Amino acid sequence: MAKTVGWGKKHIFLRPEGQVRQSQVITSYGAGALIDLVDQAVLVGGLDFWSYGSQKGVPIIQEPRLRDAVAESFRMAGRELSFENAFREPPAGDGRQPSRAVGIQVLEMPRWFVCQNPRCRALVRSDGLDLKRGRYRHQCEQKKGKECVPVRFVGACRRGHIQEFPWIYFVHRGVERQCPRRT
Asked: Do β-strands 2-4 and 10-12 pair in parallel, antiparallel, or remain unpaired?
């Protein structure tokens, strides 16, 4: 989207690849959440991936009753919850003038995609696909390639650590020889 400013000058504003409201970041789509976007699926980064830009400090949310309610759980885990700075406000991005200096970084997760060509339907990692105009494309039988969508499955342990679903192992378990195809 371009906006004309002054005589012959143009500023180009690039929209973020996905947007989430601040209230969603502290409820449904917080740190560690998987978000299903139109063209991809992403994992929301933790507090160390929140960027506030040139603001003066990190905006703090004061909620003494909530802090008191969760402080005991922290103590039982051997951690102390800060009394004054227990909760921070998510960074407020500007949808009209987005910047990489303000916002929350995400990680593409999972990285496995399915080709949408009905005759192909290949399961391929994103590093084996072409990225054109923000969409992954599989070079199966068509010259332009066919769009792909993420396979929205991940693996998790009992402690909550997530990983890519082990598709190669899953498909070949119990088989003596694996096929040579690794994508």
From this structure: antiparallel
The answer as to whether 1 is a domain residue is: no
Task: Please choose, from the candidates 87, 62, 61, the residue with its C-alpha nearest in 3D space to the C-alpha of residue 74.
Answer: 87
| 59, two tokens | 């905006």
Pairing of strands 106-108, 87-88: unpaired
- The whole-angstrom separation of Cα 40 and Cα 106 is 11
> Cα separations (Å) of 138 from 23, 34, 115, 131, 133?
36, 24, 6, 9, 14
Structural domain contains residue 57? yes
The answer to whether position 133 is within a domain reads no
Q: What's the total number of domains in the chain?
A: 1
**Banded pLDDT at 13 (limits 50, 70, 90):** very low
Mean pLDDT of 160-166: 87
Query: Is 24 part of a structural domain of the chain?
Result: yes
Q: What pLDDT digit, counting tens, does each position of 16-58 carry?
A: 566 778 888 878 888 888 888 777 888 888 888 888 887 677 8
Nearest 5°: the CA angle 21, 25, 27 is 110
Residues 97-120: what's their mean pLDDT?
Answer: 85
